[in-house]
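A student in our group prepared the protein record below, which I am reviewing. What it holds is a sequence and that sequence's fold in token form. My question to you is simply how this chain folds and whether the tokens agree. Do not assume that whoever made the record got everything right. I have pasted the whole thing underneath without changing anything:
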Amino acid sequence: MTKDKSFKSSLWEFFQSLGKTFMFPVSLLAFMGLLLGVGSSVTSPSTIKSFPFLGGEFTQLVFGFISMVGGFAFTYLPVMFAIAIPFGMAKRNKAVGAFSGFVGYMLMNMSINYYLSATHQLADAATMKQVGQSMVLGIQTLEMGVLGGIVVGVITYFLHERFQDTVLHDAFAFFSGIRFVPIITSLTLSLVGLFIPILWTYVAMGIAGIGHIIQSTDVFGPFLYGVGVLLLKPFGLHHILLAMVRFTPAGGTEFINGQEIAGALNIFYAELKAGLPFSPHVTAFLSQGFMPTFIFGLPAVAFAIYRTAKPENRHIIKGLLISGVLVSVITGISEPIEFLFLFIASALYVFHIVMSGLALMVMALLGVTIGNTDGGILDLLIFGVMQGMSTKWYLVFPVGIIWFATYFFVFRWYILKHDIKTPGREDNTENTSQSVTANAKARGKSKYDHGVILAALGGKENIESLDNCITRLRLVVKDMTRVNKQQLKEAGALSVVVLDAHSVQVIIGPQVQTVKTGIEALI
């Protein structure tokens, strides 16, 4: 039984860490996407026609340069995944893991090139795209996209964890330890590269089949996608589903300027760079579908929580709610508000899941075409308003108003009817607030006492692994009974999620990186 629990904990830890590492390249991609959106919109012929003063040579050179910089992440996304996964998942010697990921990615593609050349399957430049081949960092290889980077990253991570402490015979001692990691990685992924061309046809068929199922459901595809993301979010696994739809054929494939592009987000960026109209069946899985929820629905939840709080406690929770609203509206990070009600009112989270899926479906039905990753106000302005009326960005507002009203009245009714102890309605809110305020004054700058949080986790001897994603600490602990949930909440945590006998997540909010760094310093 203990062995089963240990395996389950390890599996949870692996998938949580894998999903978290996706945020390294995706966060860069989101920022670069903003640059690409601004640059492409200003340099597009339609913009210059509408605003002739933007057609000046200097202006076009500046925004053309911005567009070029923004296109970087789209071009080199697979290799960024190959580097980011071992870097993010490695517990020690992260830089060695990242270096080995790059080495492995290059050698895998070189081996694929060797196999294709030796078997006379290497296509010429005219037919390369049609047979699923492309140039990757100067190497003609199979077009595997982000999936190739993920394969390399995961394999490199396991090799890194297994061989970073290798001790060789004295004659070969120079190659021991961390120097052995890129060596074993290069050898292993060279062999993997020889087998990939044999297996890739079947892998590609499987992914294409998933994509066909999603696309064949028409408007229900976005609905099911939104529901899936929200169902996985409490466990921190939603990034895997997001990445699959954004970067693999599961999100669709299209030929753009003679090149086959796979993944909803990749297709959107390719259309943006080429100045082409955005495909509605692609943007249906991107920012537009999350905007009614992030910009309107979740602020309504915060307002309902504020209105239903005890009058004497409203000033106490105002800062918490405002910060959650700003994070949701501006950056599209929803957890700070979602975790205020997720674990105390599961029925409201079910309602939230359905409404989120409906938001994606409704925006798709209306023919809105706003892409990118976040679903916040910046995406609305840059990829909606600045791209012209053809994106139908104006439809976000009537839909959003309906979402705001629906969320507010449902949450207010349910909280009052069932006396849900949302922030400001607990009997001990004042005591908790005074405790947190006193700790904050003692610390001066941060509202989080890292020592108190570490003690509530059972102390440093109880921590097996510590990591974080955008809003939550991800931990594997030795003894779950030593984790004090109430003390963690009093120390500023929004919620505590126990996944199994050893895996726990502490939802902090946007300042989670600072908290993790502080706890690491104490450990």
About this structure: Residues 2-217 form one domain.
